[in-house]
Amino acid sequence: MKKYIFGLALMAGFFLTSCDTDNEGAIYNPSWQNISFEKANANQLLTQDATLSIPVRLIRSNVSETYTAHYSLTSEQEGIFTDNGGGQVTFEKGKNDAIVTLTANNMQKGTLYEATLTLSDADKAQADTITNGAITATKISVMCDYVWVDAGTCTFTDFIFTEDENGATAENIPIINGQGSNVYRILRPHYYVYKDDEFATDAANIEFYLNDDNSIKLPAGTSAYLAGYYLYMDYGDYASYCFVEQDGNTYKVNHLLLSGSNLYTGSFSFTWNR
């Protein structure tokens, strides 16, 4: 998609000629390198391996000569990302693209890793002021996922999106476990309850941790995305609204919903059939 837009910009440039035939201007021809990353935010990569090779594509508009661009790699997570190019990448003569390869190492299951590549100031200065479409930094995200295995089903009751004081209920909703961990997910429970496509995505999965005493706890902060609201747990300032009640294998989760800067109370319950 980026190539298509970039092509249109160049095509538009070809029409930048003077209408005065006596003083005809030169057809636009880019003299600057106009180095750009292909995307500002690459699609999140998903792997179950501890190591992953990550290609990052850069493009340019001036292909008349070989050119070496420079960039920096930053990440708040030390010891994960390695830049195989050592901070530079070379565009061959006649080529409008080049590839930087990163390696992500030492990744742990269930963890999101992020890094940013940023062009050097000298290469930013090579931006073409006519096309002016250069992306000078790109963010890379890698999720090291669990191997998910079956962990039974549940009967799930929602009290958020229904006026029925007894809630809205669905049975036989799958629960999965990140193999070798205490991390579990209820798969799209609100979709099973309401049959509404707004809940039919993995973002609507509800994640929880199972403790040794059979109690559970949901992740702090935002988690499941439920039709415009994030399920939100704050065990500090809002502890009186964020807690779990338990009776055997039945759990009632009291939580908050976050929409923009607004908070609302909510709850759901499930009975786990293991």
Largest sheet: 10 strands, antiparallel
Task: State the helical fraction.
Answer: under 10%
CA(first)-CA(last) distance:
46 Å
The number of helices is 3
Coarse structural class: mainly beta
Counting DSSP E segments of at least 2 residues, the number of strands comes to 19
**What coarse outline follows from CA principal-axis ratios?**
elongated
Q: Average pLDDT value?
A: 88
Provide the β-strand percentage band: over 45%
- Give the topology string: H per helix, E per strand: HEEEEEEEEHEEEEHEEEEEEE
> Unreliable segments (pLDDT under 50, ≥5 consecutive)?
1-29
The radius of gyration computed from the alpha-carbon positions, rounded to a whole number of angstroms, is 26 Å
Features:
274 residues, mainly beta, 10-stranded antiparallel β-sheet, 5-stranded mixed β-sheet, 19 strands, 8% helix, elongated, disordered N terminus
Model description:
- The protein starts with a helix and ends with a strand.
- The relative contact order is 0.12.
- The protein is elongated.
- With 274 residues, it is mostly beta strands.
- The strands form 3 sheets. Strands 10, 11, 12, 13, 14, 15, 16, 17, 18 and 19 form a 10-stranded antiparallel beta sheet that branches. A 5-stranded mixed beta sheet has the order 2-9-8-4-6.
- It has 3 helices and 19 strands.
- It has helices spanning 2-13, 121-124, 189-194, and strands spanning 36-37, 45-47, 52-59, 67-74, 81-83, 88-91, 97-104, 111-119, 137-144, 148-158, 168-178, 183-186, 206-210, 216-217, 221-226, 229-233, 243-247, 250-259, 262-273.
